[in-house]
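Researcher: For the record, we're logging two predictions in this thread. I'll number them. Prediction 1 follows.
Model: Prediction 1, sequence and structure:
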Amino acid sequence: MKSDLQSRAAIRRSRRNRKTRYRKSRFSNRKRSKDWLPPSLMHRVLTIETWVKRICRYVPVTVIAMELVKFDTQTLSNPETKGIAYQQGELFGYEVKEYLLAKWGRNCVYCGKENVPLEVEHIEPKSIGGSDRVSNLTLSCRCCNQKKGNKPIEEFLKKKPDLLTKIKATAKTPLRDAAAINESEMEAVSYSGQHS
């Protein structure tokens, strides 16, 4: 095994050292195919395909209809959005932290401490699917931020249901699922059309 690996390394080394400057740069092997999807979305498509095949084993399925939808995430967040607001977005004229200070007040959302250094905090932790959208960000003191860690907010505030309700009402509804459908719906159709 060792000698095979050494001979392979020698062949590769000689290939790298050859004078191949006359060759044109090649980038064709670095392109993604047209039906490429991020692995998380591809998993959704393949899971649906698997379940359709399983159902077809037991039930005589003659037709499968697929509802194609597209969500306007801007108006889902704020139905009043129109005109130039589409280009500017909700952070227009703000730095992220200044926006959060204006939105949540200048105190820790979990314990209410004032006049302490505040840190930007993910309401739904990134480790369990939370995003960096401002609707998923808030401010907390270091102590609360460390206590919460990567716990879901429901678990962290299970003894404070009123505070949990208030935070969820102030934060906008997460649009993770809508964004995933927008990203994958056309790709899923082309993928299932090619592999059916």
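Researcher: Logged. Prediction 2.
Model: Prediction 2, sequence and structure:
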Amino acid sequence: MLNYRLKRETIRVCQNDYNICSLLDNQQFDEDDLEAAALGITSSIWSLFGIIWPASHILAAEISRFDIDGKRILELGCGIGLASLVLHKMGADITASDYHPRAQAFLDRNVSDNNLPPIKFQRVDFEKENQALGKFDLIIASDILYQPHQAKVVANFISCHSSHDGDVILVDPGRENRSKFTANMAALGYQHQSKGFNQTVATDIKCKGQILHYSRLNHFTDDPIKPL
């Protein structure tokens, strides 16, 4: 028997509807999840993977307009994996990843509920080397800089798994670590472009922050990232 409650909803991204099963709220916790406990996932953070956070709506909409042709793509900290689902439906070569041991089961369920073929998934730890993961032409993420040390470890992880001309798109809802992360990315050879957003992503849910685009080569024009 599940020790937590679920909800189902339909989320529209660029005129396409996605059937999503997620945790009812961020108060959910499975006290018998020994695998999560062994990984150091406490009751206070256990639910974070299973919520559709506002920034994930922004990422899903932004990436749906990105040129994905021929690109190998990785979503970091996918959680429920809304952006990965959108890319998967578009026919992209997408690998979803998360640290939480329950993320894949929720992703697989949502892939099935949307009548899509299985999606590739890898469990990753930003602080550990993962040679099996390989390199990607595009790495995407939303709201993953909520702990101070992540500004450095996430930048290093991205650099290790980004191709020589790789792009990175990260949606950040105003975390304090953003500027440090950008400084670390610059030190690793990435150029940077950003665009602010402030919008309602669901009923009574507003999200404000920055869409951050990093590139190892000068892919940028004089125009900022396309608005949502």
